[in-house]
Design brief:
Length: 582
């Protein structure tokens, strides 16, 4: 049905002459010319919420600016966002009727002058069409269809069925110029930490660590500026505790590292630890005590029509394991199990009253939201513990269900489309609130590191790329200016273990050439292993502090940045970097 509506809209756009947007009153009323007759569409009854789509877009009424799923540094003026990217503005729009000469079918609003970062299509700017389809059978609360279609390239199409899209004839010449919503300025107060920046090379390295067989090697941890610990760290130990003690083991691991190197006062937290934002993992004690207490039943999603042990095989995932059952929805996608699972128990696994599993938090519950932010995420084991911050905050809620969960979540819980929209909106609201509080308390976490990095290094393997001279020059011209905008966000330069040593100078040169005040070079998720990651000697050198941003050498394709103890350069002709120590 969504594709049919899109095709109808697309055909009408091409068949009808697009008139300049005639009227958009403050109450969201549009007047659209249909030749001899003009039709009035009052969209003021559209829901005021921002809707998430299944393919990563945010959609609001055309009289609003959509809210992004996360803080943005870009100025936004569009009712449809692709992440933080505006796709078109009501200030530059045209309208057409879906059914020529009639308001009974609905109408299109085509908006132009969307983002040109990076340039896209023949004009360089993105554009969009919102097709409002007359449908008196749906309620006034009905939202847009859940997929945005890009066709042709760099033009985005959304369909919204609604009773208000049924037009009424009005007299010609009664329509005034549009009043587009005011753009929303950049509001990213969570894009970088508040602690004192470090330019020290060793302290600017980061390691996402995991040793599932036991505690991680502290000596390796303190060779990096930040050690980030995964939930699977020490799994062979905590999975066999009765009950499981993952949360406590992470705290003990952090304290072992801090005892060896507490970090620099006033600078970045030394150790970052894992939490999950949507999965209620009951091998964490703080989650288990809530899940096992009936007073908090409203904090977790339930199986549809659960009737006890007899419902065990009624869903796509089991409700029971051995002697334990739970009516709260859960799967075992990444769960310790007996005798084998994602972590193996030597006897039946013990996660308390309920079976071990990936249960799901319900962010719509207000009392849950308070606990989630102020006790679970921000606690004596994280930001209130000296030297510790949150680390990898895993997973999220999408319209299709929780990420990395069994794909039949919606079927097994019986949630409606409206309930899923509310679930996504509540989740995003809580994450935005959490991020602001984390930063205000001097913390940060992995998913908040969203700054752009140049990626000028030719690479093979998992992140293979072949950068041309022109691409290299264009990219470095963006970075090699006074106070490049990329420095407004924290940056992560990830290294591939396969070529970390052979490409050590290139990794380090790119980092030193373009990094901002909050930046790390190092390893993201590389799996769980007791083996050390390959660590270049270049990361233990003192290069001093930068004397400004990089600059292009006149008449060349070489870019240079001066540090107090080194000169760093990158030759785009050869695709190589160099570090000359003073």
């Amino acid at each position: 049905m969504a594709m049919l509506a899109f095709v109808v809209a697309a055909v009408c756009v091409s068949a009808a002459v697009a008139a300049p947007l005639a009227k958009q009153e403050s109450n969201c009323t549009f007047c659209v010319s249909g030749g001899a007759q003009t039709f009035r569409f009052d969209l003021s009854s559209l829901p005021t919420a921002t809707f998430a789509t299944t393919n990563g877009y945010s959609i609001a009424s055309p009289c609003q600016v959509a809210d992004p799923p996360e803080p943005c540094v870009e100025v936004r003026d569009s009712p449809i966002l692709q992440g933080c990217r505006s796709l078109g503005s009501l200030a530059n729009a045209t309208t057409t009727l879906l059914s020529p000469g009639s308001g009974n079918g609905g109408f299109n609003i085509t908006m132009y002058n969307g983002s040109n970062v990076p340039p896209c299509g023949t004009t360089g700017y993105r554009s969009l069409t919102m097709s409002f389809v007359c449908d008196k059978s749906v309620p006034a609360t009905n939202g847009p269809e859940t997929t945005v279609v890009e066709w042709p390239s760099c033009h985005y199409n959304a369909v919204w069925r609604h009773p208000s899209a049924c037009g009424a004839p009005v007299s010609a010449g009664t329509c005034a110029p549009p009043i587009p919503p005011a753009p929303k300025p950049e509001s990213c107060d969570t894009c970088h930490p508040t602690w004192k920046p470090t330019w020290d090379m060793k302290r600017s390295t980061i390691l996402y660590a995991c040793n599932s067989s036991g505690y991680h090697d502290v000596e390796e941890a303190i060779s990096y500026g930040v050690a980030v610990y995964d939930w699977s760290n020490g799994k062979a130990i905590w999975a066999n505790a009765k009950p499981m003690t993952d949360e406590e083991l992470l705290t003990k691991q952090a304290e072992m590292v801090l005892a060896a190197d507490p970090g620099i006062p006033g600078e970045q937290p030394r150790v970052w630890v894992y939490r999950n934002t949507i999965k209620a993992l009951n091998w964490y004690t703080s989650v288990r005590v809530k899940l096992d207490n009936p007073a908090y039943a409203g904090w977790f999603y339930r199986f549809k029509d659960y009737k006890g042990p007899q419902s065990n095989h009624s869903y796509h995932v089991p409700a029971c394991t051995y002697e334990k059952c739970s009516g709260f929805y859960h799967d075992q996608e990444q769960t310790p199990e007996y005798p084998r699972g994602d972590g193996s128990c030597l006897q039946e696994c013990d996660c308390g009253v309920a079976p071990c599993g990936e249960y799901i938090f319900d962010h719509r519950n207000n009392s849950f939201a308070d606990w989630f932010i102020n006790e679970y995420m921000i606690s004596n084991e994280t930001l209130f513990h000296k030297g510790v911050s949150l680390g990898w905050l895993d997973d999220s809620m999408k319209l299709t269900g929780p990420t990395e969960e069994d794909t039949h979540f919606i079927n097994d819980t019986g949630l409606s489309a409206a309930e899923m929209q509310a679930s996504v909106a509540a989740y995003q609201k809580n994450i935005r609130t959490l991020q602001k509080k984390v930063v205000s308390l001097g913390g940060f976490y992995w998913q908040m590191i969203r700054g752009q990095v140049p990626e000028i290094r030719n690479a093979t393997g998992r992140r293979a790329r072949n950068v041309t001279t022109a691409e290299c020059v264009a990219k470095l011209k963006e970075f090699c200016v006074d106070s490049p905008p990329m420095w407004g966000q924290a940056q992560l330069y990830q290294v591939d273990g396969a070529d970390a040593l052979s490409q050590a100078v290139q990794y380090t040169s790119e980092f030193l050439l373009t990094r901002g005040p909050y930046a790390w070079l190092g390893f993201g998720w590389q799996g769980c292993s007791s083996a050390r990651r390959p660590r270049p000697a270049e990361w233990d050198v003192d290069y001093g502090t930068p004397e400004g941003a990089c600059k292009q050498q006149s008449g060349t394709n070489t870019f240079v940045r001066e540090w107090t103890k080194a000169t760093v350069s990158w030759d785009c002709n050869t695709g190589t970097g160099k570090i000359d120590q003073h």
